Structures are given as C-alpha cells and as structure tokens.
User: What shape does this take?
Amino acid sequence: MKMSRAELKMQARRALAGNYGNLILAMLVMVLVSWAISTIGQAAFVGSGILSSVLTNIGTGTFSSGEFAGISWRFPGHMYIVTWILGLLSSWVTVLLTVGMNRMCISLGREGTTDISRIWWAFKNHPVRFCLLQLFIYLLICVAILPVIVLTIALAFSLGGAAISRGANYGQVLFLVLFLLIYGLILAAVCLLVYLNYGLVYYVMADHPDMGVFQSLGETHRIMRGNRFRFLVLQLSFIGWKLLVILTAGIGALWINPYIRCTFAMFYLDIREPEVETIPPGRDYQEMTP
Amino acid sequence: MEQQTNNLALASMILGIASIVLSCCCFIGVIPAGLAIIFACLSRVEEQFTGRAKTGLITGIIGLVLGPVMGMILVIVMILAGNAPTF
Assistant: This one.
C-alpha cells in the first residue's frame, strides 16, 4: 500500500517519539566532525602560508602571494593540493556520516529503535564504495560544466579584454550570455531528473551493505520508477519547515533534520516494502511485534 | 512514546508563551515562536493535537506575528522621537 504524504510524516513522527535524543546527537556529531576536518584544512592552508613566509620569505615553489597586515605572505603550492584533498576527505566523511544517519532512520522505521553507534556504520561497511560514488558525482559535475568552461575560454581568447572595453563583439558576448542561460536551464532540468531518479541512493546503500556503486544506482532507479512525482512533492512539502528553521536561527534544524530524514526513510521503506504494516495511532512498535 | 510527545507539547507551550513575552524585545521572540510551532507540529502523533500542543501552536503563531509588529512599532516610535521638536 502506498502511503500518502501525511501518513508518511505521521509514521516518521511516531517513530521519532522517544528517539529524538539519539538522532539529535548523531546530527551534532555529523556537523562537528565535518566542521573539524574542513577547519583543519583551512588552518593548515593559512598556517602553512604564514610559516612559509616567516621561515623562508622567498617565493620559490609558490603559486600566489598576498598582503596581510602589512606583511607579504606566500602560500606554498603543495598546500593547495593538501587543502583540496582535505576538502574531498571532508565531503567523504560527511557522506559516510549521512549514510550512518540514514541507517539509523531506516532501523527506526523497521524496528522502532536505534542507537547512536550506528552513525559509524558506513565506516565499517565498505566505505570505499561511498568514496567511489562521490568521485563519480564529481566526474559527472566536471563533464557537465566542461562545455561552459571551454566556450568561455574560447570566447575570452577570441575577444580579448580590450575588444570588450571598446564595445566591439557584442554579438559574441550576447551569444555567451544566452548560451550560459539556456545551458544553465537545461543543466538544472537534467539535475532535477537525475535527483528524482537517484535521490534515494544513500538510503539504498545504507540498506544494502553488499551492493556496489552501479548496482545501488540501478536499484535506486528501479524502485523510483512510478514514485518520482511523489518524491518531488514530498521534497517540496518541507519548504515551509525549512523556512521555519531559518526563523529559529538554525536551532530548529536539530529537530527538523531528523524528521525530514526519517520521513524519507519511511518513503524508502514504503516503496521498497509496501507490505509492511503501518503503526496504528497510540501504539508502540514493541506492541506490534509478536 | 507518549511521554516524549507530552514533553514536546509542554516545551511548545512554554516556548509559545515565552515568545509572546519576548516579542516586546524586538525580534528575539521569533526564535522561541518558531521552536514552539515546530515542537507543536512534531508532537502530533495522533490525528488531533493535544491541548498543550494546540496552546503552543497558537501562542507560537501569535508570537511570530507579534515579534515583527512590535519591532516595527519600536522603529516607528524611534523615528518619531528623533523628529520630535526639543524644548
């Protein structure tokens, strides 16, 4: 039986009752760990720049320099790479923790109970496949924006800065702007389509530890067939909640984020296991189990 | 489960009342008002809201409306006071 939006949300609220503490703690862990890694990256970048200036004060092996508080300082070239790697690591860890949270929500939907230790689940169950998925997504993004980069560079070479300032070649500039506009719209439509087809991939991966990247993508595509519109409407139905979170200066996200995740876990369980019995009002999961 | 939802409803009611009180302090009241609405909605695990949740929801909405209104009144009063002739 396919549940309506209201039913899915009600199920999520019932499952969350008594379990908010675990999920809020998991969210805090996720935010703090991601923040710590990205902060370490930034600190390493800035710190190495300052250290490099103090120790050597020469420009060998540098890419760029700047002026800060009257002191000339330089960033060693390799630090750009280190920062980039730390950025990738940060996003990878965030994905692993996100999958852990999804796992918590799925177990909440199935068993009615969860514990905080499940947030580390993805670290112990083939974490490399999540890294591969991340790299695959990065690759897709690079391919998607490649035409824009190529065209912009080509036009920049053919025009030249002076030509633009003289007012010449307006046609080419107009062409570039129109191309970016139309290409941006097409890209947005494609992204939406991809999201509607593969939006639940992290839930599928959290539920199937043995599935590979492409297998999970294929499975997600299969279960989303006939449910894309429901998924889109469910996503849009949370806009009001997100506005409310802004009004609370982000504090409300501690409760709303688990609620949204849990609702999507219920949606996933609904399209995956439509035969699972729903929880009647006023009854616990434990009461339902034989 | 019931205990937890009761706690949420109670928190909603307290924050809703606090939001009305705090709405006099510019926009500070908006934060508890938003939280009151969130808690009231999240505490609904039955078809109907409980009494406390309903109170929290209503006071939260009032606090949410009252906060910006009071803020605007304050700004208008300050502008008028600034333009007032001094003796």
Summary: The interface with chain A takes residues 1-5, 8, 30-31, 33-35, 37-39, 42, 44-47, 64 of chain B (CB under 8 Å). Residues 2-83 of chain B form one domain.
